[in-house]
Specification:
Elements lengths: L2 H11 L4 H15 L3 H8 L3 H9 L7 H11 L3 H7 L3 H9 L1 H4 L3
Helix pairs in contact: 1-7, 3-4
Length: 103
């Protein structure tokens, strides 16, 4: 199995810890003293989506959204990926450099 297929299969098998994810996002936003609306504008998603993330209604947000949140709120991308259910993917990325290099 090539590395990209392995990443896709691994990413879809893990479960999101919605409590951990919503706590990370809400606490990060409060530490930055920004509203949900302001965060939504800064990362390019709707206010409703930010609210749904903080309420635990989104089961597995995309990695693109998580990266934007990480950058805006200065939250570790590793923590967000793990909470969002991408821990196996994170493990692969940390341990198989050929995936990152697309070998």
């Amino acid at each position: 199995m090539n590395n990209l297929k392995k990443m896709k299969n691994t990413a879809s098998k893990s479960k999101c810890d919605t409590n951990a994810l919503k706590d990370l996002i809400e606490n990060g936003r409060r530490m930055k003293k920004i509203s949900q609306r302001e965060l939504s504008r800064k990362i390019g998603i709707s206010h409703a989506s930010v609210n749904d993330l903080e309420k635990g209604r989104i089961q597995k947000p995309s990695m693109e959204i998580l990266i934007s949140i990480s950058e805006e709120l200065d939250i570790s991308i590793s923590e967000l990926l793990k909470a969002a259910g991408y821990e196996k993917l994170l493990f692969l990325l940390n341990n198989d450099k050929s995936i990152i290099n697309n070998e």
